[in-house]
Each structure stands twice: as structure tokens, then as C-alpha cells.
Amino acid sequence: MNPAAENRSGLWVAVASFVLWGLMPLYWHLLKAVPSMQVVAHRVVWSTLLVVAWLLWKNGRGWLRAALARPRAAWMLALSGALIGFNWSLYIWAVNAGHVVESSLGYFINPLLNVVLGVVFLHERLSRAQWVAVTLAAAGVVWLTVNFGQPPWIAICLALSFALYGLLRKLLAIDAVTGLGVESVYLFLPALAMLVWGEAHGQGGFLPLGGAPGWGMGMDALLIFGGALTALPLIGFAFAVRRVPLSVVGLLQYIAPTLQFLTGVFVFHEAFDQQRLVGFVFIWAGLAIFALEGLLRSRRAARVMPAPLPAREA
User: Fold this and answer.
1) What's this model's pTM, rounded to 2 decimal places?
2) Most exposed of 25, 148, 191, 237 (fewest Cβ within 10 Å)?
3) How far apart are CA 46 and CA 170, in angstroms?
4) How many Cβ atoms sit within 10 Å of the Cβ of residue 71?
5) What are the residue ranges of helices labelled H in 149-273?
6) DSSP codes, 106-140
7) Distance CA 90, CA 83 (A)
8) Could you report the per-residue pLDDT of 96-123, keeping only the tens digit for each?
9) Contact predicate 229/51, CB 8 Å
10) Does the record bear Cell membrane in its keywords (predicted)?
11) Are the CB atoms for 148 and 275 separated by under 8 Å?
12) Over 70: is that where the pLDDT of 239 sits?
């Protein structure tokens, strides 16, 4: 495949991944009758089976040993697995508790929080535009806190857990799908134990296995396919990020929270009054400055990059 075609295919795969992530609240809402922790446990179990099967097919039986042979990989992936498990649990609970709009706010904040963590832990320096962007986002959070009597905890916890997850994965520098596979292996047994305990005590309804009436075959199929919905966008993202400039990926990532926000307001009819709008506008303004500054910086870097030397003939 020529570079232009690879870039084009990577772009479409990236868009599809972010659209799928953005529309996921609609899917998790279909599982509203299932307790949130049961949904998370099923998500972990079925995504683990899918991701591990992919890695076995792609890298052979030694993939796990090779991944854990990296320095610090064992404990860092255990910690990142705990963070992503917490993130999934909070997100699914928030969606089915009627907090899709606030959840989307968390993923709008996330890129700016990544910048702050880069300054604190990686000693990166912010440009003036990035400081303005972070300040505007902070002002939006403060506005929402003052007007509603408490911080938007769901958004903050989602953003912080995912930003810390991203920091750990950046420090470890492991392939996205391989890292997800190791994290999934860590989470698999606790998730399976939770499901078995629930079925044994009549709190589950899968198939049904534990004597409970069951949720029905349609719901069981949705729970199983939820594992694929967990893994496929990340695999697509890993495919795309190698073929599309990171500046483009950085702009495309806002597709997901935008779709989540629109779903919360126009599909689930969640409250979004003028006071909330003011807070969101501060945050969106910060994101616009952040995205524009990143795009301009990448274009300047491309202009100063020396042209490749012509290949010598044999």
C-alpha cells in the first residue's frame, strides 16, 4: 500500500474509532437493566478473551512473557489496569445514571489535564497559548463548581483517571493493544470472580447460570459484544496512529466527547441550562486555543524539517 493510501485508510479508521467511542453511551444505555458493575465485569471478561486471542494470533504464545519482561512493566500495567477499570466503572455508571453530559465534560478536559501532568511529572514546558488554554478550562470548572455548589466530580474523576492512565502508558511506551492485553489479564480473574459470585447469589442474570430469571438472550448478546466494543476502537486507534500525523489525531479526538455531549442533550434530554453552557464555553474556548496552537506548531515543524535526500541508484 502506498503512503497516501495508508494515510487515507488510517484517517478513516481513526474517525471510525472516535465515532464509536462517542456513540458508546447509546450502547451502554441498552444495558441499563443490568447493574453497572456487572456490565463492567462482562466488559472486562469478553474484551480480555478477544484481545488475548488477537495477540496470540499476531505475536504467538510468548506475547505476555515478552511484555512483562520490560523493566517496570509488571507493576505499571497493574496500576494502569486498575485506573482503566475504575474509569470504565465510573463511566458506565454515569451513563446509566443520567450523567452523559458531565461524562463528556471529563473527556473534553482530559487533553488539557494531560498537558498539566506533562508539566508536573515530565518537566515539560507550556507555551503561552497552552497556559491560556489551561487557565480557561480551569475557569470553566470553577464556574460550574460555584454555580452548582460542588465540583463536577464525575468529569474530574474521569479526566484524572484517564490522564494518569495515559501518563503511565507514555512512561512505559508499550504497544497499545499489548498493553491492553496485559491490563486485561490482570483484571480478568477479579471480573470473572465478580460474575461467578453474582450468579451464585442470585444477583446475576447471564444465560441464566445462577437460578435467577435472567436478562434474556438479547441482553446476554449485548454483554458479550460489549467486549468487542471495548477492544475494536483501541485496535483501530493503534492502527491509525502509526499512519496519521499526531496533530490530526489530536484534533480528531474531540469527535468522541462531542458526540457524547450531543447524545446526552438531544437523545437523553439531560439538563443543560445557561449556567452549564457558560462553564462549557470556557472549556471549549480553552480546547480551541490548545488545538489551534498544536496544529500551528506541527505545521511549523513540518516546514523546517529538511527535505529527504534523493535515493542513490545502485
Assistant:
1) 0.85
2) 148
3) 26
4) 7
5) 153-172, 176-200, 217-241, 246-252, 255-262
6) HHHHHHHHHHHHHHHHH-----HHHHHHHHHHHHH
7) 11
8) 999 999 999 998 888 888 888 888 888 8
9) no
10) yes
11) yes
12) yes
